[in-house]
Amino acid sequence: MGERSFELRTVALAAFGPTLLFSTGEGAIIPMIPLIAADQGADLGTLGLIAAMIMVGELVGDVPSGALVHRLGERRAMIGAAIVSVLGLVGCYLSTIPWMLGACVFLVGLSTAVFALARHAYITTAVPLRYRARALSVLGGVFRGGYFIGPFLAVLVLMVTPDKRAVFLLHIAFALASVILLLCTKDLGTGGEGAAEPAHQGLLTTLVHHRGVLVRMGACAALIGGLRASRMVVLPMVAVAAGLSPSTTALIIGIAGGIDFALSYTSGQIMDHFGRMWAAVPSMTGLAVGHLVLFAVDDVPTFAIVAVFLALANGTSSGILMTLGADLAPQPGPAPFLGAWRFTGDFGQAVGPVTVSGLTAMAGIGFAGAGMGLLGLLGAGLLLRYVPRYVPQARTGVPGHITHPAE
User: Fold this and answer.
1) Quick check: bond before 399 cis, omega within 30?
2) Which CATH superfamily is domain 199-392 in?
3) Given CA atoms 282, 287, 292, 294 in this order, what sign does their dihedral have?
């Protein structure tokens, strides 16, 4: 990318608008899926499995979605993903037994993987390097904003009708709105015409050719994803262990979430002006320290301090995984690489809560926090080693695409 003039609003309608709509709908259904499964007769273990199907769908869809986006182009891939999501949501609404609900939720997860990859690839291609981190941080913030708004809209829907399945209709409306918005915007630009022939070959070639960076930087991405997901699981567990009331817990976590969201653009400014490492390493270190001190939480003030500290640490790296993926992705045609890259982060997000659960069962929540904290310090060390090696030019004022050192 050159040093051309650029303003974020030039990509707002094409990328941020559909993302806000789609993520708001998804944010509305996620808290309700276990409740709907329970209404259909699922036991506690099955509830967790069905709720996890959306993440499992994303994991399964991450890598092949790269080839699909490369073949179709970003705009058509996003439209197709939204339509497939609508089909899955219709199935969710019509389902009467848990296995059918789980299968349809899995389909929604698959479509989410394609939708997310397409918007990531678009920003990677459309935004100049010197503005990239800010654009992707805003994209991450928009996604978080949708997840924040969605549950409140679900509450409003349930005030109108007692049928919990109505939240699926809400997501259908938002998904269709995203399709209409995409149809009203110009083509997002890469892939599609002329890209069909190398799509499958590009996926396999990308995985083989970039196996070194995917293993090394992918380990960093998995650890970042794991610590982030762990934070969302471990805080409510610590609150229960400390005897906090549900309302107090929800209030503090909500305030922390607001702080996290408010730092989205600041994170992008740090990465664009000072370099990716200055957001990644301090953030990972902060997440590690926040987990390490969880054993000290025994009342409301200490819980609030740790929750806010973790929010500050997480917020200052908003968009870091998408930004590093964009920096590392080959040009042209970044989608196959980004599909594999997103899998590493999503894998960490899936494994993180499971690790917390296992460590807690072994020796308690304090031990789980310490274990995740040590993994966080390991991640900070890996970032300190590999970010300067693989992303040496990802800072303001240095034009051109980033190349990987010999592996």
Assistant:
1) no
2) MFS general substrate transporter like domains (1.20.1250.20)
3) positive
Dihedral angle computed from the Cα positions of residues 383, 307, 266 and 181, in that order, rounded to the nearest 10 degrees: 100
User: What is the pLDDT, as a whole number, of residue 2?
Assistant: 44
Q: Position 313: which residue type?
A: A
- What does the pLDDT read at residue 211? 82
Q: What is the rounded CA–CA span in Å between residue 35 and residue 47? A: 8
State the DSSP string of 165-211.
THHHHHHHHHHHHHHHHHHTS----SSSTTTTTTHHHHHHHHHHHTH
> Are 175 and 25 spatial neighbours (Cβ–Cβ below 8 Å)?
yes
Contact 310, 323 (CB under 8 A): no
- Are 10-197 and 199-392 equal in CATH topology? yes
Among 178, 211, 318, smallest CA distance to 260 is for: 318
Fold of 10-197: Growth Hormone; Chain: A; (1.20.1250)
CB 265 within 8 A of CB 139: no
Q: Return the H-helix or E-strand segment holding 254.
A: helix 246-262
pTM value? 0.80
Residue in this structure with the two tokens 């015409």, named with its chain if needed:
193
Q: What is the pLDDT of residue 201?
A: 47
Length of the chain: 407
Residue 48 to residue 114: CA distance in whole angstroms: 24
SS3 assignment, position 44? helix
Query: Alpha-carbon distance 407 to 389, whole Å?
Result: 11
User: Residues with Cβ < 8 Å from 12, sequence gap 6 or more?
Assistant: none
**How far, in whole angstroms, is CA 109 from its chain's centroid?**
12
Residues of the chain where predicted confidence (pLDDT) is lower than 70? 1-10, 44-45, 187-204, 393-407
All structural domains of the chain with their residue ranges? 10-197, 199-392
Residue 131, pLDDT score: 85
DSSP letter for each residue of 107-130 = HHHHHHHHHHHHHHHHHHHHS-HH
In 73-97, alpha helices (H): 74-94
Decide if 200 contacts 327 (C-beta within 8 A).
Answer: no
Calculate the CA 346 to chain-centre distance. 7
Phi, psi of 343 (to 5 degrees): -60, -40
